[in-house]
Amino acid sequence: xSKHTYAGKAAVVGIGATEFSKNSGRSELQxxxxxxxxxxxxxxxxxxxVNGLSTFTMETNPESEIMRxxxxxxxxxxxxxxxxxxxxxxxxxxxxxxVASGVADYVLCYRAFNERSGRRFGAGVQxxxxxxxxxxxxxAWTSPHGILTPASWVAMFARRMMxxxxxxxxxxxxxxxxxxxxxxxxxxxxxxxxxITLADHQASxxxxxxLHLLDCCQETDGGQAMLVTTIERARDLKQPAAVVxxxxxxxxxxxxxxxxxxxxxxxxxxxxxxxxxxxxxTSGLSTDDVKTAVLYDHFTPFVLAQLEEFGFCKPGEAKDxxxxxxxxxxxxxxxxTHGGQLGEAYIHGMNGIAEGVRQVRxxxxxxxxxxxHVLVTGGTGVPTSALMLGPDR
Amino acid sequence: MSxxxxxxxxxxxxxAQGPRHEARHPITGTGIADWCDAIGDTNPLYxxxxxxxxxxxxxxxxxxxxxxxxxxxxxxAQARFRPQGLPAADDPRSKVLRMLExxxxxxxxxxxxxxxxxxxxxxxxVLTNTQTxxxxxxEKQTGLGIGHFVTTRQRYETVDGEHVGDLLFRILxxxxxTGKTAAADPNAKPAPAADPALRPRPxxxxxxxxxxxxxxxxxxxxxxxxxxxxxxxxxxxxxxECGSFDIGYAVASGHGTVYSYTVVHYPQVPGFRYPIVxxxxxxxxxxxxxxxxxxxxxxxxxxxxxxGMPVEIEWLDSHPAQVEDATDSRGPxxxxxxxxxxxxxxxxxLSAAEVSEGERxxxxxLPLSPTHIVAGAIATRDFQDVHHxxxxxxxxxxxxxxxxxxxxxxxxxxxxxxxxGPEAVVSAxxxxxxxPAYPYRPLTFSGSVQSVDAGIGRVVVAVQAVNDLGPHVxxxxxxxxxx
Lengths: 393, 483
Ligand SMILES: [Zn+2]
Known about the structure:
The complex is a heterodimer of chains A (about 400) and B (about 475). Chain A is about 30% helix and about 20% strand. With about 400 residues, chain A is an alpha/beta fold. Chain A has a single domain, classed as Thiolase/Chalcone synthase (Peroxisomal Thiolase, Chain A, domain 1), CATH 3.40.47. In chain B, a hairpin with a 2-residue loop joins strand 17 and strand 18. In chain B, helix 2 packs antiparallel against helix 6. The complex binds zinc ion.
């Protein structure tokens, strides 16, 4: 494996979002367009200059509708990434590859949904038609048994992690406490000024044991977009560039959608390990260079596993790494300074990339001193993606 | 009449002794064998002449839980079958119960049953029993209603006058409709319908068809490469090891151990009873290869499931056919579930020194069917219609037929003596009765050692049998083990 040749040649130059709410009161398409326009305005780029789009396969707003809504005359790149929340950092990776290779000039990465007021992912897959494609048939081993939701899948990994590493529910709770502490400072967060204690976490009801309600991310209506272009163009735009120092996608041996239950060990996230290896090789950085990270937190247990996969601590030691405020502001490695998906909003990880950009720019509500290189990750337990953002020098 | 006067009238019978009642027939080996078959107790000392002859008993004995079944009057005691001219029973309890019924306390529920065994019974013994009315409580408000507890003791002797054991039995006679019910939670949502036909249907296609055909045949098939013999799950059309597209299957025993598990509380969807215990199971090796499989669990409470717990498969015929003869998702569907593995009966009896206080017995889950209930009732010579006639059980306001107490005690005895081994001597079985055990609601037995006196070999095991309605029986089994 060698360094990715597009690395360092592209940057995120604009970020834009709608408000994050429980009921947007408008269409998902409008949310997407509002976020895309905001990202262009942030960068000082006319949306008509955009000629590339990148989003999730789960996105309900097709590129054609975004193109028409933004008045884009011509698209030369449009790509989608599969596997739900595993996609966010890959949208930026595809955009970076497109601009670095000359396929497109400006690429918008976007994700928008009414995930709270519309179709809720937390409701699970019980309402899906029983088609029989190889993708649908994967659910045949779980859905008829009541194992229907992302929480029910992640809980299976979490229980084994507790068994092998001696991790406790309180350790998972430390992640929620950190996220909510950060969200409490963030006016854009749903849980602005609403920190929680470990006792609150422990008292919250069970969703799927060993996961309490406060181990699970929110459900949100909203949209988030990022504008990506080359590093040369970036230098003429309004905002300091957040350079794509490395980006990666990852699947690993015996991968399943979110139910890789059949590997020799189900403790750890080997697909995130695949991303970690590429991120470190391509960026040339090490854990010492990273002062803050945005780690995907749809469910708290996998935040621990990510710290281990990226080498911030040894396997089984994340519970000690996060102890005593280790991932809170002022700690060893502040994580999810926007409040994460537990505290700010659940926009399938795209809002986490925006926070990574803010940390590089120095504009986060919980700015970390000396945060130059910011690690951002995509969904865990699924085929996933990761990103290293840094300043233009 | 005031409640005090009524109580005084009732209590006038306390201490009264009934006539000495003699069994119609001696205990027989056939009767014992029927009981063993119904309870599934394979302890050879009850049925195997040779093994029994070598045991501490020196010959075949009746299981201790059968103490109070042999002198039962049988079917003729049931009102519908009572021969003309046979007078109603005039033992003290029957007299008091008639008084209570005339006063409106027509509801009845058994509360406690305590069997004390002086010596094990043998084929040929002819039993007698003499009843004493021990106690009548004052009027009490209970969850079921306002009523009186009535306690009787039955002394069992052989016709030769040898004391063999005692039964203490307590029932509650109550006025229906006077119960204290917990205030309904105004925010409580009704549970979704639990009919398994409402579960999501699996998507069946050409790749997984053979496995679902196996489900229909109640056979757990694991894909197997016909070329190199590699096992894998879930199915794929190609062996990733040798590249062969020739994929067959091996049949798993369905035994395994829990590798990880969850307890699903939310969201609640139709087709399931919540919370659902789900388990990722390491199946026992097939051709030396270990494969994992997952399913929901039955017969285990969330606090009883552990990683490493032995489990075995059970089949649920969940979905009727939507389209006759369809072999895909529209056809009939059966689903595997896991339940705690049936503990194996210990052949070599534990000594008291090998038992430690707090030690837990392996969990036993009994998938209770109507046959279990009817066979148990008949084998314990209990012909009350609520234990065998569903129509009459419904008429009496019961949701279904339910397990009779003697069968519950029999299962409890088997649960403990399968763990101790055949030569443990049971000196007492004491239970408090709770939720009824209806068919199709698996009954899970758990137990732990409450006390050990290694010097005299005395061990007390606390036992509970629980179904999804709550504790069915809670009690103790007192034993003597070899020292
Ligand atoms: Zn092969």
